[in-house]
Amino acid sequence: MDFSKDLICENLTAEEGVLYFAGQNTAALAQKYGTPLYLMDEDRIRQQARVYHDTLQECFGEKGHALYASKACSFKRMYAIMAEEGLGVDVVSAGEIATAYKAGFPMENAYFHSSNKTDADVAYAMDCGVGTFVVDHPEELTAINAVAGEKGVVQPVMLRITPGIDCHTYEAVNTGKVDSKFGSAIVTGDASRITAQALSLPNVKLCGFHCHIGSQVFDSSVYIATVDVMVDFLKDMLDTHGYAAEKLDIGGGYGVRYIACEPTIDIAASIREVAAYMKKKVAAVGIEMPHVYMEPGRSIVADAGLTLYTVGAVKKIEGYKNYVSVDGGMTDNPRFALYGAPYTVLPATRLGADRDMTADVVGRCCESGDIIQPDVALPGDMTRGELLAVLTTGAYHYSMASNYNRIPRPPVVMLRDGESYVAVRRETLEDILALDE
Ligand code: PLP
Fold this sequence. Notes:
Layout: E1 12-15, E2 18-21, E3 24-25, H1 26-33, E4 37-41, H2 42-60, E5 64-69, H3 76-84, E6 88-91, H4 94-102, E7 110-112, H5 119-127, E8 132-135, H6 138-151, E9 155-162, E10 184-185, H7 190-200, E11 204-210, H8 220-241, E12 247-249, H9 267-285, E13 291-294, H10 298-301, E14 305-317, E15 321-326, H11 335-339, E16 345-347, E17 357-362, E18 371-378, E19 387-391, E20 412-416, E21 419-424, H12 429-433
Parallel strand pairs: 4-20, 5-6, 5-13, 6-7, 7-8, 8-9, 9-10, 9-11, 11-12, 12-13, 15-17
Antiparallel strand pairs: 1-2, 2-3, 4-14, 14-15, 14-19, 16-19, 17-18, 20-21
């Protein structure tokens, strides 16, 4: 059968029916490292990071900045790669901060998000030298001011603003609406009030504003609408409080292709379109161009990732349903359970075989919702021991993985220039037991 449409990213190829990823034989990698296995294509990560970095600099010169939203995939090597590519990072927890810090990331280029930073998080972030805090709400701002005062520092902050834009994507990743749990809304007056508060506090320095409207966005018009609202807000803050924002972060969110019928986006072209609009808008309202930030996660790492599983059982319930059980599941990929997310699942060593069976590909957790993907077309003679590949698993997979049922998490193996290396080793049963007294 013709499987060319399944090769949904250019780092996927085939030789004699075997799937190759980043130019490497997936069967050989499974043999070498075992399954389940996260593979990541380092060249693709770097390529995508450069698209953001170079295009933002092309559009805004030294005022254009790319941050990597490290919640998408966080381990030490990722921070080192981002530092090498000249990106800053968005971190959302003490754990992500510790990982970046230990990786030697220049912490002045780290932006600490999260909608609820504890006092301990705040103190730890300051001790690690995190450059900028992105503040969610007034109580947090008060706490940051207090901790900074105790430490005798003035902490640079940005304020997370809710622009009131619906990006029409999954509800769980739609964050820019007025009723979002994140940030201070413009229409309610909260955004203006928190700005006044930040300007009145002695131990914080307000550097500007941040927003993020959601994820899996395929349309420049959403960013243009965001820029429209946010630039008006910047002008309003200048008129109301005499405050000229130095920085504006318009968030992350560009979508990626999980299945063949989803579009691919020309991210550089879209950024140029948004930048052109922003320059026009800034000139029209008569403010100075701020430094402009974007903070993508998914679109840098998602299609740089692929998961390999070994089939453990093919269960055919005659007249009802078929199941293909694999040696991973919702512990390494919770996204179908969370969002009903679509995936491309391929028989990695028999791409050309007839896919005459429809089956739910399920994991090995004691949970009926442990589904990686329902209704997948697979060869009817599939048996235990065969290799399955799930595509586009670089974002929000390793970083969302759990130990439910005390299942150890898979390793992350990086692929580069025909070589492979372990970036995160496989968890062991000793690791699972390590915290128990
Ligand atoms: N910035 C913020 C504040 C976010 O919450 C997220 C994702 O949840 C991102 C950036 C990254 O979004 P994406 O991975 O869709 O690019």
